[in-house]
Structures are given as structure tokens and as C-alpha cells.
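User: Show me an example of a complex going from sequences to C-alpha cells.

Assistant: Sure. Here are the input components:
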Amino acid sequence: MGLRAAVITFPGSNCDRDMAVALEQVSGTAPLRIWHGDAALPDRLDLIALPGGFSYGDYLRSGAMAATSPIMRAVVEAAGRGVPVLGVCNGFQVLTEAGLLPGALLRNAGQTFICRTVPLTVENSRSLFTAGYSTGQQIRIPVAHHDGNYFADEDTLDRLEGEGRVAFRYVQTCNGSQRDIAGVLNEAGNVLGMMPHPERAVEDDHGGTDGRALFEAAIRQLA
Amino acid sequence: MKVRVHVSLKPGVLDPQGRAVHHALEGLGFTGVQDVRVGRLIELEVADDTTDATLDDMCRRLLANGVVENYRVERV
């Protein structure tokens, strides 16, 4: 049976189609498309993806409004049951605002929007989403964000590092993130938030395919 | 009743916006500015019987992000 995935679209999401295409390309099955105002998720989901974009125009704080939308109550509940959740860019911001991941994403330290392909180090290759990489492997994934500066207090950062919950790190300082963190996992390991866009590095025409292994690993284990 | 919620970045949290404003003030010739922090002011019109606990709940659940921000509620 194919992968039963859902891509959530908020008003202002703009990478939802890219995410859906990447999931379909790798899994062979088109994901379900879910609107933020829906109160319930479809049954028996294998994977939920929160895409990049500028939900609600980044009003108040990036991801803050989307985190209060009806569908997010269902996403939080599903994540609690162990359903895998991938949040990319704005999706990562929504996951932190919804309390599914620790920390917050602040304005880039240099104040500028950063849009380029950056090298990342895979810090943990034992999670559902990172099992297609090896620990310490360097991959190249595009970033495109204004608010990607990961912040958490020192105790939280130490805990994340100690528990292997830093999934990806920027090889070179990118946006001012504490300890150059680019992606983090929740305690159970089924929720990954990351600022870089793996869905933009899936096909040869993208200029790189290093993101493909993330989807392949998850799909191999889930479908 | 009008309520003002003042939201500010916690001390120690880098404020690149504040730093840019600081530089701009210096560029305009204002000397002696030691630091600039940019916050947010949210004005609410609420029912008169709205309790402190409810206002606090609004701040914690949406208006401020407790990871990086402090807030202060002022009844006007």
C-alpha cells in the first residue's frame, strides 16, 4: 500500500505544492491536501507535512497564528500518538509555536533574508527522517528564510544535544542560530522541524538531490 | 476597558532589529545611545470584567512567546 501522507496548507503557505510533489515523486502516491480550517485530519495517516511559506503574513510572530488554527489541534494530538510530522521552514516555526518542538525561531542575526544552498552536517542518522544519511555526512540543501535564527536557553540546548535531538547543523554560520542548529527532533523522535528545504533538493533539475534521502528513508519505514 | 500588552525580548536574546535601529540613530548623529531593543505594543479592548488570569492566559498562549519574550499587562 502507498504512503498515506497529508500536506497542510495555511493561508500564506507557498511551499505546500513543492512538498506534495516531492512526497509524490518519492512515494509514488499523491499526498492528501488539508486546509488549515479543517478541524480533523483524515484517518490512518502515515505522515503529516507542514510546508514553508508565510502563514498569516508572519503576523505577530512567524508561525504563531497558524499554531492556533483548528487543524493544529489535530496535528498536536496526532504527533502525541506518534504520527510522524515534518515541518520545513515556516512549518518548523509553526511546530515551535505549537509547542511540539522546543525553542523559537527569531529574525536572522544579519537582518537579511537568506536564500541560497548551504551545506549541513547530519548530526543524528538514527531518526525516522534522517536514517537515509550517515552521522557526520555533509549534505547540501537550500534555505530561504528571514526568521531562521534558532534560539533556546542553554539548558534546553544541552538537553537537545545530549539526547541526540539536533538533527542537522549548518556547516558555516548561516543565520545566527544557537550552536548553528538547522533542525531539531522532539523527544520521541517522530517530529522533525528544519529550516532548510529538503523538498527543493529532490530532482536533478533542482541542482541537487540531497533532500531525497530524507523522504526515501521516512517512506521506506512507513509505507 | 482598554488593555495594553507590552511585549519585549528577554534580556540576552539577540535583537538584530534593535541593533539596526541603533546604527541608524548613530547615522543620524544621535550620540550616547547605548542600546536599543525593539518590542511590540498590543492594544486590546476587552469586557470590563476580564480577569487578570484571563489576560495572562492570552499573553502566554498567543500574544507573547515565553521562550524569548517577556510581557507586561497594563490596564488603561
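The lines above are the inputs; the final block is the predicted structure for all two components together. The longest helix of chain A spans residues 16-27.
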